[in-house]
Amino acid sequence: MAEKTDVSEAQIASHWKEEDYYPPSAKFIAQANMTDEGIYERFALENVPDCFKEYADLLDWYKYWDEILDTSDAPCYKWFKGGLINASYNCVDRHLAKNRNKTAIHFVPELEEEKVDHVTYQELWVRVNEFAALLQDFCGLKAGDRVTLHMPMSAELPITMLALCRLGVIHSQVFGGFSGKSCADRIVDSGSEVLITMDAYYRGGKLLDHKIKADEACEEAAKQGQTVKKVLVWQRYAGKHSAETPMVEGRDFAVNELLKNYYGKRVEPVKMPAEAPLFLMYTSGTTGKPKGCQHGTGGYLAYVTGTSKYVQDIHPEDVYWCMADIGWITGHSYIVYGPLALGASSVIYEGIPNYPDAGRCWRIAQDLGVNIFHTAPTAIRALRKIGPDEPAKYDYEFKHMTTVGEPIEPEVWKWYYNVVGKGKAAIVDTWWQTETGGFLCSTLPGLRAMKPGSAGPGMPGIHPIVLDDEGKEVPDGQGKAGNICIQNPWPGMFQTIWGDRDRFVRQYFERYCKDPNSKDWRDWPYLTGDAAIIAEDGYVRILGRIDDVINVSGHRLGTKELESAALVVEEIAEAAVVPVKHDIKGVEPDMYVALKPGYEASDAIADKVQKALVEEIGPIAKARKVWIVPDMPKTRSGKIMRRILAAISNGTDVGDTMTLANPEVVEAIKKMA
Ligand code: PRX
Question: Which residues are paired to 483 by β-bridges?
Answer without folding.
Answer: 467, 531
